[in-house]
Amino acid sequence: MNTQTKLTSHNRKPKILVARAIFPEALAKLKASFEVISNQADQVLTPQALQKALGEVEGALVTGSERIDAAALAHAKNLKIVANISVGYNNFDVPAITAAGIMASNTPDVLTDTTADFGFALLMATARRITESERWVRDGKWAQWSIVHNPLGMDLHHSTIGILGMGRIGQGIAKRALGFGMNVIYHNRSRLSVEDEKACGATYVSKEELLRLADHLVLVLPYTAQNHHTIGAPEIALMKPTATLINIARGGIVDDAALAQALQAGKIFAAGLDVFEGEPTVHPELLKCSNIVIAPHIGSGTEKTRRAMVDLAIENLRAALQGKRPPSLINTEVFKA
Ligand code: DGY
User: Fold this and answer.
1) Is 317 left (phi over 0), alpha (psi -120 to 50) or beta?
2) Which of 128, 235, 279, 306 is catalytic?
3) pLDDT, tens digit, 9 for 90 and up, residues 10-26
4) Does residue 307 share a domain with residue 215?
5) Distance of alpha carbon 235 from its chain centroid, rounded?
6) Is 132 a known active-site residue?
């Protein structure tokens, strides 16, 4: 190798993939250190396009829309890290990524409060029928103030909130509920420490008790194959007819067809949904329900938090490409110091 070639290869910028649109300043910073293949058109890449791009790069910034599995990694000979811009990583086949010797990271913590705020907003909107009321007014149905003939909701204050999934976001929701004087019960794979239960004012119950006792049931658990349809017709049948169901977790945790039937039959009072099976498609029967508040997966959607998520994903990617341990590495066994 001559000197010129050596210099060129030494100074070569690592090539990375930015699989979705990110903030222009973040992209500009990346371009200073990396050769960037970026998808600023923001159209989700086809599996073929993703596989091809992953075959060309050393690092990739991806989101929940990109499925990273053995097929996606088929040509990824130089890939060191897939950095998810998301705390949930059910789009990752972690065993396949690990088997390929590739690091996987996510973005915990930076979105906890924003997502807990949103969970509470969705709960309030659902219980107090805010979007339904707005449609009612816009449709010219508000003829006069009435004690009974306008949309009447359910109270939050001094009611029982049931939280399924008591990780960071679940605990954030519990702490907000305390401010409303709510009775907080929860169910989780593992019980919280006594200190954490105290900080959240939360009482551990079985899943069945949670379903039976909650006036408002909030789902915050991660999606796994075992959690598929955790809430379906049999679970909804245990809930109070006056209860609300809030899903800010992941599509697939709720059986959306069963939920639509239950909402239409008045088996529960209302639902607030930020995530859907097969999103961005929403089950057509859900769209027919008036007792539902729908949002387009915006739990972490404030500009400040989305910037923080992108920044943390970039930090993970940079660390991996510099031979350092990414701060939020998922498959720690892959990292070799
Ligand atoms: C997350 O971070 O998991 C959000 O739901 C965005 O996918």
Assistant:
1) alpha
2) 279
3) 568 999 999 999 999 99
4) no
5) 22
6) no
